[in-house]
């Protein structure tokens, strides 16, 4: 993340996460800010900055005290969208040398008593779970339950544990076995630039039908797998289709807290990590693909804190080319998500957006009942079309798995459809409708008619 921050060179940073909250009164906003300051004081990771100039390696510095910056702005009373104006005026650049890497910008909403607060955190100190922890502790202070909060654990303990794993050599061996013969990147739509800032990306959201969500869970259970595994296989099929490759690699976002030790679920910090998964689509059936992906994801958990650069170096892909340019983030999401409206009493979520440097990413949000997709893609990619491909591939994959589990043939993964009826008609019929009326006459006559 520091690499991408330096690439931005003071400009928009893809890893600054903006969250806009709407308060019913200024008093409630002020109480929120006071509680937020106390949460920042509780946790070492929120009081850090990053230093790198003149050093052999970057270091994260914990400050004993870091005053939370609060900036008050004024939005145009005629503004049709005060939230967007606030986001545009503040932007997504951030000075990583100055702690804390948490910033608050507030503005009165025109025409009433309501207030907006833009909360910005850099991903180098937090992940999605961290933001939920932060808001949960703010609520505890606001509701008089601060005494019930557990003693904060230092994030540096988990950093030390992750670094210790680098010395064993196990990460290198695992990724060499997985990726040693991969010599070309898997780049959907031929896009190999993974150094973007994500500012030109567009989103498309789609909710899987409740019946399909239930079928995914049932099929996964019968195969001894998880819904996440099934969705990884569906994404594999889509990536294979849009890249034209039988051997595909893409990134999966790991929670990072499964093997981080006791208390990791209540410690804020950047635990998540993105690491590669690989599958040969032409060499496996759909059932075997699910079982193989289950084993691969389970094995990745033992290496969830390995650096992505290490995995890249274990492959045969040239060092200046990314191993993959698409990622999948499957997240059990019972807390903060795009459908959240009221966060706290008198506080509503007005805007929330997470970006990455990858040209194509998909977030799969699973709240235990329904499964929803968010495809985030650069302007050159039709994110809605990709979302449609994923929905079709998921339904087709589940159908193929169900038939195999009921005694039918085990079809190859390549037999899973990715084009629905509408997409198939567009590709096969509409895009190939090249018929044209040809005028009658000899070539000299046609030429004479044109120039005459």
UniProtKB/TrEMBL annotation:
Cited Gene3D superfamilies? Chloramphenicol acetyltransferase-like domain, Nonribosomal peptide synthetase, condensation domain
Pfam families in UniProt: Condensation (PF00668)
Q: Where is the Condensation domain?
A: 1-425
A Gene Ontology BP annotation from the UniProt entry: amino acid activation for nonribosomal peptide biosynthetic process
Quote the cellular component terms of the Gene Ontology held in the record: cytoplasm
Query: Which molecular function term from Gene Ontology is one that the record holds?
Result: catalytic activity
Name the InterPro entries on file. CAT-like_dom_sf (IPR023213), Condensation_dom (IPR001242)
* Stretch forming the signal peptide: none
Q: Which CDD domains match?
A: E-C_NRPS
Q: What is this protein called?
A: Condensation domain-containing protein
